[in-house]
Design a protein that fits this description.
Number of helices: 5
Mean pLDDT: 84
CATH superfamily: Lipoprotein localisation LolA/LolB/LppX
Oligomer: single chain
Shape: globular
Low-confidence stretches: 1-9, 13-18, 124-128
Order of helices and strands: EHHHEEEEEEHEEEEEHEEE
Largest sheet: 13 strands, antiparallel
Number of domains: 1
Length: about 290
């Protein structure tokens, strides 16, 4: 994958007060709902309202520090509150790691499976010490997935929207909405003013602290792993927040619903992940049992 790809879609936000100097919070919320209604109409309208389930499959390429990885992913969603994300990652040519993260109503769970030789353990910093933070990270990812594909939040993660202003890029103008959910940092959504499609989702946070330990004879001890996590967290806490960006493009129609088929993720001006959707099923016959941890 290309390293340090410059983001083509650069926006300069205009403060809401410049557009509506006397706007109230209610007026900002009302305008946000108007923009969301137009966006939902643009990607499906009545077809979107009748959607009860969605299955997506694809491939990804990603950089993780000095490593480059590739693999496949799938997303299964059932309205109103179920999101299962699965990714299988090829590492070092002889290992395959499959990670599962699921929102199932009020509950969340995760799992990791591995095949091949050697041992690689990947954990996000702080998960072992703060179970609630770990669960909220899964909820936050499920929220972003649902917003990105369906422009709606799971019913257990009620999200409020407000109009934040207008943004410009060389390609045109965008309406900007702020979104706040019960978990995770505030999100910012950019909608193209002509097509009304979602172009980009951003939020602020610390740079990722990926703790990776490779062993040929079993996983590292919990004491050793916790030490490395604490060291990584202490170093990250000294750094300023950065902007995470997810960009949506290459919209294609599937049974009357327009969905992004190219998704790029990055931090600030660098792209570190590219996802390509290869298969979509509208209203597949998913069962609630699929979202229960085995």
């Amino acid at each position: 994958m290309r390293e340090k790809v410059l983001i083509a879609l650069l926006f300069v936000a205009v403060a809401m007060s410049e557009l509506f100097p006397n706007a109230s919070a209610q007026e900002a919320a009302d305008k946000a709902q108007q923009i969301l209604a137009a966006a939902r109409a643009a990607i499906g309208g009545e077809k979107l309202k009748s959607l009860q389930a969605l299955s997506i499959e694809g491939e990804f390429r990603r950089t993780m520090g000095p490593m480059e990885t590739s693999g496949s992913f799938s997303v299964d969603m059932m309205t109103p509150d179920k999101v299962l994300r699965v990714e299988t990652m090829n590492m070092m040519g002889n290992m395959e790691i499959t990670r599962l993260e699921c929102l199932n109503g009020e509950k969340v769970w995760e799992d990791q499976q591995q095949s091949g030789t050697g041992m690689v353990m990947i954990r996000r910093g702080g998960r072992a010490n703060d179970p609630k933070a770990a669960e909220d990270m899964i909820r936050g990812e499920a929220l972003k997935t649902s917003l990105g594909f369906l422009l709606s939040s799971p019913s257990t993660l009620q999200t409020t929207f407000s109009y934040a202003g207008e943004a410009e890029s060389p390609d045109g103008k965008a309406d900007v909405l702020d979104a706040k959910a019960p978990v995770g940092p505030p999100l910012r959504l950019y909608f193209d003013q002509k097509s009304h499609r979602l172009l980009m989702l951003t939020y602020k946070g610390k740079r990722p602290r990926m703790i990776t330990q490779t062993r040929m004879e079993g996983p590292p001890s919990e004491e050793e792993l916790q030490k490395r996590i604490k060291e990584a967290e202490a170093e990250a806490a000294k750094q300023p927040d950065v902007e995470y960006q997810t960009r949506f493009s290459n919209y294609k129609e599937v049974n009357g619903i327009w969905l992004p088929h190219t998704i790029s993720k990055g931090i600030e001006s660098e792209t570190n992940e590219e996802m390509t959707v290869t298969k979509v099923k509208i209203n597949p016959s998913l069962k609630p049992e699929k979202f229960v941890k085995k």
